[in-house]
Amino acid sequence: MAHLSSFYIPNRILSKCLLTAVMALVFTSCSNVNDATADPTAATTKTLNLYNFSEFMPQAVLDGFEDETGIHVNYTTYDSNEAMYAKLKLLDDSSNYDLAVAATYYVGKMAKEGLLQEIDKSKLSNFKNLDTSLLNTTVDPESKYSIPYVWGSTGIAVNGDAINPATVNSWNDLWRPEYKGQVMLMNDMRDVFGMALLTLGYSSNSSNPEEIKLAYNKLTTLMPNVETFNADAPRMPYLEGETTVGMIWNGEAVMGNDEGLRSLVYKYPTEGAMFWMDTIVIPKNAKNIDAAHRFINYILRPENGKIISEEIGYASPNLAARALMNEDKRDDTVIYPTKETMDNGEFMEDVGDEAIQIYQQYWDKLKVSR
């Protein structure tokens, strides 16, 4: 900071207006320094780089954050957790994301590989709003690296205008010959193999190479029925009439109904659904750490958690947000399943690097075989 005493004016007859200009410049400089001291992140957090699924963050939330903070959110998308992981693993310090959304079963893996930064919960005044039963998971025991964003399930979708929903109750029903060329599968390795493993009586979290192979063999027999793989907007093949039955995430089914396909029915399979939770993480190369924490804290506000859950159709981990919702949302069992449904399903977990490599080999072969 400059002080007036540091200025030497050699000409005693310097005009008054020049002296006034010098003093104005000095005080302006002091004022700017004080502003920077009050907000040390102001010059470095004008853009927040967020990596997420498409259509997985309401525009109203992004706009509200930008209006309140002046921080622009640069929203970049991926279509699978595998793609997200691969991208973050390859990034160097020349390019970065400040925040990413990752499924819980990738959080532990990414943390072990040094791909994530610890989250400073002292900067999250709204952390208290979260359901404690969704914290301190097996993949992130102290919630050091992840903050719950939304949670949901993978189940069966049926277009009731084309197929009687009462006739489709099992994952095995997707193999029926009459559904040739009508089935949609998620473009998600763990979802697809998890579904096949459940039909064989195995855990969707199996790391047994023989069980994974058997699941692959069974999936090859499903391929004649498969019309498409989609994880970018899984409701669209149903909305556009491309497919009539298959897999879907429950939130996408809710969005499909909201967008006009009232006949799209979401069903929890008799073998059990696959449950998952998506979380917010800070990648290792993040530059705008303060902005990242401000954004996390912003979406943890009850009113923002409500907007997120109601617009994208998934369950909120934010108890304060749920308290603001109408009963028809809080009591919707597609979004918030019963305890019996939950007990019949499994939350997806990390299966380990060796198993993932086996899954990936069979997944690549499966996709090429179509």
Characterization of the model:
With 370 residues, the protein is α/β, with parallel strands linked by helices. The chain has two domains: 47-149 and 278-337, D-Maltodextrin-Binding Protein, domain 2 (3-Layer(aba) Sandwich); 152-275 and 346-368, 3-Layer(aba) Sandwich (D-Maltodextrin-Binding Protein, domain 2). It has helices spanning 16-38, 59-69, 81-90, 104-112, 189-199, 209-222, 236-239, 250-258, 289-299, 302-312, 319-324, 327-330, 339-344, 353-368, and strands spanning 47-53, 72-78, 99-103, 116-117, 147-159, 183-185, 226-229, 245-249, 264-267, 274-283, 346-347. Strands 1, 2, 3, 4, 5, 6, 7, 8, 9, 10 and 11 form an eleven-stranded mixed β-sheet that branches. Strand 1 (47-53), helix 2 and strand 2 (72-78) form a beta-alpha-beta unit. Helix 6 packs parallel to helix 14. The chain is globular, with a radius of gyration of 26 Å. The N and C termini lie far apart (68 Å).
Give the topology string: H per helix, E per strand. Answer: HEHEHEHEEEHHEHEHEEHHHHHEH
Fraction of residues in β-strands:
15-25%
Helicity, as a percent range: 25-40%
Major β-sheet profile = 11 strands, mixed
Structural class by secondary-structure content: alpha/beta
> Roughly what is the average pLDDT, rounded to an integer?
88
Large-scale geometry: globular
CATH class call of the largest domain: Alpha Beta
Number of strands: 11
Summarize the structure.
This protein has helices at about 15-40, 60-70, 80-90, 105-110, 190-200, 210-220, 235-240, 250-260, 290-300, 300-310, 320-325, 325-330, 340-345, 355-370, and strands at about 45-55, 70-80, 100-105, 115, 145-160, 185, 225-230, 245-250, 265, 275-285, 345. The protein is α/β, with parallel strands linked by helices and about 375 residues long. Strands 1, 2, 3, 4, 5, 6, 7, 8, 9, 10 and 11 form an eleven-stranded mixed beta sheet that branches.
